[in-house]
Automatic annotation (TrEMBL):
Species: Arthrobacter gallicola
Main localization (coarse): membrane
Membrane topology annotation: Peripheral membrane protein
Start and end residues of each ABC transporter domain: 1-235
Protein name: Amino acid ABC transporter ATP-binding protein
InterPro entries: AAA+_ATPase, ABC_ATPase_HisP-typ, ABC_transporter-like_ATP-bd, ABC_transporter-like_CS, MetN_ABC_transporter-like, P-loop_NTPase
Length: 239
């Protein structure tokens, strides 16, 4: 995935001010930065939940900012997991996992359920297929949301602060699922405040502030010896 000179404004407010960015196949890129720096907007542009004002986003060489692009196809290839899990409350876990498969991937019931169960097992929740979201802990709901995204067989996964809404004791299980995905070679872009995860699982850390990428590099370098004052100042508050 490659982003070139991406700009995004909301009215007069320019939120992304020329972002250049890439994620290689199989790479885990962690995006860090203060609140309001444009991290979520960047992710939302990448799977076209937001329309970029200008710039190019290529996924496997195909420009997804082209008006001709099939957005449903883009979103099946790029899975997204949000801070708020966004499960359908009136559907059970299995139904949450099969709905999009049946609609967007045109899978039959049996195939969709088989794929769902495989991914529920992967996140350690095969025994909760018939539960409703409200019957699950926040950590379990987030693992269901991850399994739902995986059930579309995405080429890449985007995570927007997936553990920020969770009680501290529930964070570890979700990070463990993400670590396992990374080990399996999934291409991932993760907005997170979990610096331990960024350091241990990330192949690269990108620090954003004020709608620009201030610095990026391998996690040990960016987190351990940041080159820019803005990065140092941010890290001194979160580490
Ligand atoms: P971050 O995820 O780094 O906290 P965001 O991308 O959510 O930052 O927000 C960056 C800026 O964009 C903020 O000033 C926010 O108010 C603004 N913004 C985000 N989404 C919208 C929107 N839909 N309409 C107007 N302003 C928005
Ligand atoms: Mg955000």
């Amino acid at each position: 995935m490659e982003v070139r000179d991406l700009h995004k404004s909301f009215g007069d407010n320019e939120v992304l001010k020329g972002i250049d960015f890439h994620v290689n196949q199989g790479e885990v890129v962690c995006v860090i930065g203060p609140s309001g720096s444009g991290k979520s907007t960047l992710l939302r542009c990448v799977n076209r939940l937001e329309e970029p004002t200008s710039g190019i986003i290529r996924v496997e060489g195909v420009d997804i900012t082209d008006p001709e692009t099939d957005l449903d196809a883009v979103r099946t290839r790029i899975g997204m997991v949000f801070q708020q899990f966004n499960l359908f409350p009136h559907l059970n876990v299995l139904q949450n996992l099969t709905l999009a498969q049946r609609r967007a991937k045109k899978r039959g019931k049996a195939e969709a359920e088989q794929t769902a169960m495989k991914n529920l097992a992967k996140v350690g929740l095969a025994d909760r297929a018939k539960a409703f979201p409200a019957q699950l802990s926040g950590g379990q709901q987030q693992r269901v949301a991850i399994a739902r995204a995986l059930s579309m067989d995405p080429d890449m996964m985007l995570f927007d602060e997936p553990t920020s809404a969770l009680d501290p004791e529930l964070v570890g299980d979700v990070l463990e699922v993400m670590r396992q995905l990374a080990e399996e070679g999934m291409t991932m872009m993760v907005v997170t405040h979990e610096m331990g995860f960024a350091r241990e699982v990330g192949d690269r850390v990108v620090f954003m502030d004020g709608g620009v990428v201030v610095e990026q590099g391998n996690p040990a370098d960016v987190l351990g010896s940041p080159q820019h004052e803005r990065t140092r100042s941010f890290l001194s508050k979160v580490l």
